[in-house]
């Protein structure tokens, strides 16, 4: 539940109990429950309004799934084109940089910057 373990939950409950007292905790829990129910109802209302709007414009859930599937396929295609076969964004660029470094080192030879 939200990545909180048992010990952490007990600690949080202990802090709440210390801050608000034992007589206020049930009232707070009731209020939190009502707020969560209102939030759930509001999100369901928003989802239904979006669905009605989509259906009014001729989009059903199947066509929306097709559209999102096509978008995801294009994103994956762009990623594979960018990353290439190596799976590395830089690809062969890293090898070329290393070659240039070696060439510069071979040209400078024993000459090094003195401080």
TrEMBL record:
It holds the Pfam family TatA_B_E. InterPro entries: TatA/B/E, TatA/E. It comes from Flavobacterium nitrogenifigens. One of its GO terms (biological process) is protein transport by the Tat complex. One of its GO terms (molecular function) is protein transmembrane transporter activity. This is Sec-independent protein translocase protein TatA. The keyword Secreted does not apply. Forms a complex with TatC. The keyword Cell membrane applies. Belongs to the TatA/E family. It is found in: Cell membrane. Part of the twin-arginine translocation (Tat) system that transports large folded proteins containing a characteristic twin-arginine motif in their signal peptide across membranes. TatA could form the protein-conducting channel of the Tat system. Gene3D superfamilies: 1.20.5.3310. Its main location: membrane. GO terms for cellular component: TAT protein transport complex. PANTHER family: SEC-INDEPENDENT PROTEIN TRANSLOCASE PROTEIN TATA. Signal peptide: none annotated. It is a single-pass membrane protein. Keywords: Cell membrane, Membrane, Protein transport, Translocation, Transmembrane, Transmembrane helix, Transport. The gene is tatA. The chain crosses the membrane at residues 6-22. It comes from the Bacteria.
């Amino acid at each position: 539940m939200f990545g909180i373990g048992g010990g952490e939950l007990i600690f949080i409950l202990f802090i709440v109990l210390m801050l608000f007292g034992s007589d206020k905790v049930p009232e707070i829990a009731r209020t939190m429950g009502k707020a969560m129910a209102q939030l759930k109802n509001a999100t369901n209302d928003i989802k239904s309004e979006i669905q009605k709007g989509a259906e009014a414009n001729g989009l059903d859930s199947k066509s929306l799934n097709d559209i999102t599937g096509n978008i995801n396929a294009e994103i994956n295609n762009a990623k594979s084109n960018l990353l290439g076969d190596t799976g590395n964004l830089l690809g062969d660029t890293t090898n070329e940089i290393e070659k240039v470094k070696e060439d510069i080192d071979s040209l400078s030879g024993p000459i090094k910057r003195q401080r």
